[in-house]
Design brief:
- By secondary structure, this protein is α+β, with helices and mostly antiparallel strands.
- The protein folds into two domains: 66 residues, 2-Layer Sandwich (TATA-Binding Protein); 166 residues, Nucleotidyltransferase, domain 5, CATH 3.30.420.
- It is 46% helix and 20% strand.
- The protein has eleven helices and ten strands.
- Strands 1-5-4-3-2 form a five-stranded antiparallel beta sheet.
- Strand 9, helix 7 and strand 10 form a beta-alpha-beta unit.
- Helix 1 packs across helix 2, helix 4 crosses helix 8 and helix 6 packs across helix 7.
- The longest helix has 25 residues.
Length: 283
């Protein structure tokens, strides 16, 4: 079965060295998007200029992939945190934090986990099921619309912004997932998809997340790093599940309907009421 992963420039260098050391046979590329193609016995793989590697899933091809993938050696756990639902007028806000061991990173890359923006909804659902079945430690903070609106109003009353709200949700999810792992003697790296460094840092401090053995990175490219990608996939899975539940309960189609067509009487139960278009409808 064909399998795809994303590799970086260092892993591409290791692949080139492996090809040379094993004297693997290269095949001609078939289009302008391919960087190289290897076809040698049971090894059949293609590397694209985007950094995507596709192989045939054979044991021999898997051996090549195992050789080139980067193994994390600096940390015992990597924690990724990401949110879904911030930009949708409907449905919940979901923030997910997930804890991975170094071997989890390699294993999940091999089944196709990558930046969730590059995945279809079907791929996200397939990967979410595999991730959930693997027993990884994770925590969701899920705020359904009515609860979301209540909590947002509380933050607003205190003069806080949406970023304060998001920072609190991320810190809560991260603190919760840290409670699931033996963090006292472990070396831990937390990666958050950056949105507001100062507010997030403050909430992490208040949640007692900042410890000497914990390194925290807020990255503008966090969603391209695997721990954040895993968190994003799980968050999107949880978001879509809750939207399906709301659709069934209120007999609507939130993904394809406008707020106007949903009806004013249902918006309090389905929508984030601080969105300007929603507030205007409810005024």
């Amino acid at each position: 079965m064909p399998t795809s992963i994303s590799i970086d420039i260092n892993e591409l260098g290791r692949l080139r060295n492996y090809i040379l050391s094993q004297n693997l046979k290269r095949a001609p590329t078939t289009n302008e998007y391919e960087l190289l193609r290897i076809k040698d016995g049971e090894i059949d793989l293609v590397v694209y200029k985007t950094g995507k590697l596709v192989h045939n899933g054979s044991a021999a091809s898997q051996e090549v992939v195992d050789f080139i993938l980067t193994k994390e050696r600096s940390f015992d756990y990597l924690i990724g945190s990401d949110e879904v639902g911030k930009g949708e007028w409907y449905g919940p806000l979901v923030v997910t934090a997930v804890a991975l061991k170094p071997y989890d990173v390699v294993r999940l890359r091999k089944i196709g986990v990558r930046d969730s923006k590059l995945l279809t909804r079907g791929e996200i659902e397939r990967l979410a099921k595999e991730i959930l079945a693997s027993g990884l430690s994770f925590k969701n903070v899920i705020l359904m619309p009515e609860t979301y609106n209540e909590r947002y109003a509380e933050f607003k009353k205190e003069g806080k912004s949406l970023n304060d709200f998001l920072a609190w949700a991320h810190a809560t999810a991260i603190k919760d997932v840290l409670s699931l792992i033996p963090k006292e003697s472990a070396r831990i790296h937390i990666i958050i998809d950056k949105f507001d460094v100062e507010k997030t840092d403050l909430r992490l401090q208040r949640a007692n997340v900042k410890q000497p053995n914990i390194e925290i990175t807020q990255s503008s490219k966090g969603d391209t790093q695997l721990p954040v990608s895993v968190a994003s996939i799980l968050a999107k899975h949880a978001f879509e599940e809750r939207v399906d539940q709301l659709n069934a309960k209120f007999e609507v189609d939130l993904r394809n309907n406008s707020p106007q067509s949903v009806g004013k009487e249902k918006l309090q139960h389905l929508a984030k009421t601080h969105f300007k278009n929603i507030a205007k409808l409810l005024a």
